[in-house]
Design goal:
This protein has helices at 18-25, 34-47, 65-73, 83-91, 108-117, 127-139, 178-187, 208-226, 252-266, 276-279, 312-316, 404-408; strands spanning 4-7, 10-13, 16-17, 29-33, 53-58, 77-80, 99-101, 121-124, 144-151, 173-174, 191-197, 233-235, 269-272, 283-295, 298-303, 322-324, 333-338, 347-354, 362-365, 387-391, 394-399. By secondary structure, it is α/β, with parallel strands linked by helices. It has two domains: 4-32 and 280-408, Lyase, Ornithine Decarboxylase, Chain A, domain 1 (Beta Barrel), CATH 2.40.37; 34-278, Alpha-Beta Barrel (TIM Barrel). Helix 5 crosses helix 6 and helix 8 (208-226) runs parallel beside helix 9 (252-266). The structure holds pyridoxal-5'-phosphate. Pyridoxal-5'-phosphate is lined by residues 58, 60-61, 79, 102, 164, 199, 202, 237-240, 273-277, 370.
């Protein structure tokens, strides 16, 4: 599993035993293998080496500054969806001209900030947004580069909560509105239309939908060029799947086979926004068993991490592998692994066969590098977990644990 391996009876992140990290920083704690992030980035980068391309790592999956900085050093740009993400990407040293700004609800403030920073372009998700970007750009005397995200009405064959390319989803412009989009752009003298974008969903475990989306985009680009728009950038989003529980997702090169011929035919530049593929299996969440509770025939491992640390099981009933950080790994009893939060959705595994654990034992929740810490909340006034990075035999706290003082920092008692 990427940077994580079992050696000398202990799970490690790179060369560091996870139990050593837990002793030093406490639990719950996220641990990221920086080389794992880098290797996954390189896998996609290599797969597309025969066409001009920019990888804009999707930081909604993991926006830790150390992670972004490491990827940026390999040439990565970023896909951002808020002013806050743009701010963080810039702080991590990502050049503005490698940043793409997506999202259905950009505010005027977001737009002005991005224009002043000089981002590569906006991925525009609606006609009213073209109007808004044009107005803001005009006001601050800039020309706004844009790509239009189309909704190709293609099923990504993934969980319905992370499918984004069907016509009932809120994302992208309805294909039937292409003429209206062209009219709006022609009337908007402060925007420059250079790209077409489609991102149809996340955690795709087959390549067919990617190929279909590429072909729809190809037809749109050809039509736009015939209409006189100098479209160069083809952005096919992210969505490449990973192994959570034994899925056999395609390799980056298999997705590339579907896409490269289209890019070559169009003589275009390719933009990609992979997130989970790079970050998902590059991080784990460490947690300790607080109690082993027997309730009739049921056994609960109550742990010190909760849905405020990793909400994916509660949100999508997502599966995460779990194992003791050290000692026997053989599953022997069926348990629920649950957190301390006052919600029945606060669980990490249900009816899962796991090794025996006792109070104080350290567990590793795998595949937690994407949509993990970024979705963290302080619900039940539980401080956010720290984030630790490893490389070789070294580890460092990249984000410290929140304190109780941090929890009240923004508040005052008003009467
Ligand atoms: C526009 C866009 N690009 C990229 C991504 C990253 O997707 P993934 O993590 O599946 O690669 C998302 C996630 O939903 C997205 O909405």
């Amino acid at each position: 599993m990427n940077g994580f391996h079992f050696k000398n009876n202990r799970w490690h992140s790179d060369g560091v035993p996870l139990s050593k990290i837990a002793e030093k920083v406490g639990t719950p704690a996220y641990v990221y293998s920086l080389p794992a992030f880098e290797d996954r980035f390189k896998e996609i980068d290599q797969a597309y080496k025969t066409v001009p391309h920019l990888m804009a790592y999707s930081i909604k999956t993991n926006d830790n500054l150390s992670v972004m900085s490491a990827l940026s050093k390999l040439g990565s740009g970023t896909d951002v969806v808020s002013g806050g993400e743009l701010f963080k990407a810039r702080k991590a040293g990502v050049p503005a001209n490698k940043i793409i700004f997506a999202g259905v609800g950009k505010t005027d403030e977001d737009i002005a900030y991005a224009l002043k920073e000089g981002i590569r372009y906006f991925n525009v998700e609606s006609i009213p947004e073209i109007v808004a970007i044009n107005a803001v750009a005009k006001k601050i005397k800039k020309i706004a580069p844009i790509a239009i995200r189309f909704n190709p009405n293609i099923d990504a064959l993934t969980h319905h909560y992370i499918s984004t390319g069907k016509k009932e989803n809120k994302f992208g412009v309805f294909l039937g509105d292409l003429d209206k989009v062209m009219k709006t752009v022609r009337e908007s003298h402060s925007v420059r239309w250079t790209g077409v974008h489609a991102h149809i969903g996340s955690q795709m475990t087959q390549t067919g939908s990617v190929g279909k989306a590429a072909k729809v985009v190809e037809q749109i680009v050809l039509k736009l060029r015939r209409e006189g728009f100098p479209i160069y950038d083809v952005n096919l989003g992210g969505g490449y799947g990973i192994d959570y529980q034994g899925e056999k997702p395609p390799k980056a090169s298999q997705y590339a086979k579907q896409v490269i011929p289209v890019i070559k035919r169009l003589n275009a530049g390719l933009l990609l926004e992979p997130g989970r593929f790079i970050s998902g299996n590059s991080g784990v969440l460490l947690t300790r068993v607080v109690y082993v509770k027997q309730s009739g025939k049921k056994t609960f491992y109550i742990v010190d991490a909760g849905m405020g640390d990793l909400i994916r099981p509660a949100l999508y009933e997502a599966y995460h592998r779990i194992a003791p950080a050290e000692g026997p790994q053989k599953p022997v009893q069926t348990v629920d692994v649950v957190g301390p939060i006052c919600e029945s959705t606060d669980f990490f595994a249900k009816n899962r066969k796991l090794p025996t654990a006792k109070r104080g034992d350290l567990l590793v929740i795998f595949s937690a590098g994407a949509y993990g810490s970024v979705m963290g909340s302080t619900y039940n006034s539980r401080p956010l977990a720290p984030e630790v990075v490893t490389r070789g035999k070294r580890f460092a706290v990249a984000r410290r644990r929140q304190t109780w003082q941090d929890l009240i920092r923004l508040e005052k008692i008003s009467r």
